[in-house]
Design goal:
Chains A, B: This is Alanine--glyoxylate aminotransferase family protein. 2 copies of one chain form a homodimer. Chain A contains 14 helices and 13 strands. The first copy, chain A, has 393 residues and is of the alpha/beta class.
């Protein structure tokens, strides 16, 4: 596959990968079994647990983050199981489709796109529907640029003894997520966003409470590949030679992931989270100072994805085209309800960096002005630089 | 992930990957959507169809070949569906587990390990059980080194209007498989054997007959990720921007796959199949001439995996250890019923090559002799070289 041109990925995923991680994939293929592999696998799982801030069981599912989402749904949704599904963005509907595909009964709670999930609505819905057993939540809503208050929602789920499936696809590794402390029963992400690895792995943790729930089901967990009980059975039976589960492991992606994990842990999680906060803050400040309206209130704005409203009278597609053609920077449109109206910038992992933020900010303003706007570049950059200047990082 | 040592993979998978394909993965990550991606995806699918010798729909499932196996089972196995499951080797039991996990009723036919599936047993079983709707078949049995007569079995399935799920995991791209001409309804493999790519993709074709079967089911296909109807729905709906299905595509593995496909098509399928025949023949001739007993009769012996019986009084593990330590060549033990008694050599794609065959043959004899055997190296090499010499290739 020849890459005809490479645009730098300031999109909500996949994101840029460090050259060292890319090169790790070019190593000769190794077998996914035997003593060496057992060592490699445990090493990577241990590092993953640090990033997930968890002592729960961790699995690497060959596939996408959707595979991990579905394995969680399949684990705890039986025919008729009532599931609270929050609908605050595009991929929430994926959870809905998955729950329905396992004949779960969806209890939806809808929010305006750009608004977070309101914990009090979760509380009142669970209170009014005591038969709800499971909730799905997207922590960081890629389609809107909102970060949901997962900690508070998890607390409420615990009060109501509800299993929480929390999708952290675009936040894990970039935003502080305390899987165990918060009580996220299933917590999953892909490897291609803040985990800064080329896509192909679903990373997921499973709590003790979730295991008990699975063991106490009335009907068996469906299927084989996306079945955690089956996965655990093989992991245990084959622990001494094939410890990751029953299927072939995508070893090249593991290799890249380990490099990425090493870099993340060397940076230190706390530093990393602060970096994401700061760069997001600078971008928001810059856009705002230029006269561009942000789509999300600062209180809920994601630190890995920034969304803004396309200035009046300008075609968002043309903004993106100019950025690609003249800056080689790719930003993203928005889906569904907000298509055409909102643009999205990803700044995750590698691209949560001053150089990328400043280049993207400048490019956006340049493109808007080229299309007829009169945005103030100087003010924008000044505001962004002030943010950096006044930071202690 | 640091590779502590690299042993050349003469195992039944994963297998060696060409440096060009490895390096293709080190390219910057590209997005799995948009015009460029639509072009790349169709290009790869078209090349895959050539290797599969099919006009059927082709899917690339992010995950392992087991994901593709399960998607096929899930597509056509409803609760109570009777499924003929041939049990002639280790991974046949995976199909059995999968069918059972979808509440299918397994009608097993067992064969001695090392023996092929006998078409007349398939015929008589289908004849005696007219309610059987589906059959699972492993074309090339990795655990035993047998190639099953898929063409004849497919013919019988057609006569009885049975859907055939044919696993070609360790043969596709190395052994001539005429998906359409033979009538394989689902034909799947991983990308890590004769397809000579680092693992992580399930490649699978779906026949028109299989689609009709899915559409006429009484109960819906289960789940979302491994659900071909769902996959097809998204492929169609999103064809102009996200054509491969609803989830993130492992673009780096696609890149390696395309390089591998290009090399396969440049070589020419017919040349490629002949190469696999010749190298397998040379290895078998050499082992036999050395005085080592082959596990499988020449009539059914696989051209991608050769199995032989560990010489009396010698520990197979020690043979493997010497090969690894002194030759840096990794061969494999055998599972389950034949563990300890049989060793397996993979020669797929890249390693179906004279140099690898001769080095491995020599190494095996060296190891056996070091452990006390008195095998004739000269005769072995002479027999292998005679095979090459008398070939027209």
């Amino acid at each position: 596959m020849k890459i005809e041109r490479h645009n730098y990925l300031m999109i909500p995923g996949p994101t840029e990968v460090e050259p060292e991680a890319l090169l790790a994939m070019a190593q000769p293929t190794i077998p996914h079994y035997g003593d060496d592999w057992v060592r490699i696998n445990s090493r990577i799982i241990a590092k993953l647990k640090k990033v997930f801030q968890t002592e729960n069981d961790m699995f690497i599912i060959p596939g996408s983050s959707s595979a991990a989402m579905e394995a969680a749904v399949n684990a705890v949704v039986e025919p008729g199981t009532e599931v609270l599904v929050e609908l605050s963005g595009f991929l929430c509907y994926r959870f809905k489709e998955m729950v329905e595909s396992y004949e779960g009964k969806v209890v939806p709670i809808e929010f305006e796109w750009g608004e977070p999930v309101h914990p009090e609505v979760v509380r009142s819905t669970l209170s009014a529907n005591p038969s709800i057993k499971v909730m799905t939540l997207i922590h960081n809503v890629s389609s809107t640029g909102v970060t949901n208050p997962a900690r508070e929602i998890a607390q409420i789920c615990q009060e109501f003894d509800v299993i929480l499936i929390c999708d952290t696809v675009s936040s894990m590794g970039g935003i502080d997520i305390k899987t165990d402390e918060w009580g996220l029963d299933f917590c999953m992400c892909g490897n291609q966003k803040c985990m800064q690895t080329p896509p192909g792995l679903g990373l997921v943790s499973v709590s003790e409470k979730a295991w008990i729930h699975m063991e106490e089901r009335k009907t068996p967990v469906q299927g084989w590949y996306l079945n955690f009980l089956n996965l655990r059975r093989y992991c245990r039976q084959w622990s001494d030679w094939h410890p990751h589960g029953p299927v072939t492991a995508p070893t090249a992606l593991y290799a890249a992931l380990e490099v990425a994990l090493d870099h993340m842990l060397e940076e230190g999680l706390e530093n990393r989270f602060k970096r994401h906060v700061l760069n997001a803050k600078a971008l928001r400040a810059g856009l705002k100072a230029a006269g561009i309206k942000l789509f999300v209130d600062n209180r809920f704005a994601s630190n890995t994805i920034t969304t803004f409203i396309v200035p009046d009278g300008i075609d968002g597609k043309k903004i993106r085209k100019i950025l690609e053609d003249e800056f080689k920077i790719m930003i993203s449109g928005a889906p569904d309800k907000i298509a055409g109206r909102v643009l999205r910038v990803g700044h995750m992992g590698v691209t949560s960096a001053r150089s990328w933020i400043l280049a993207t900010l400048t490019g956006i303003i340049y493109a808007c002005n080229k299309l007829g706007a009169t945005l103030d570049t100087g003010k924008a950059l000044e505001a962004a630089l002030d943010t950096y200047m006044s930071s202690t990082n």
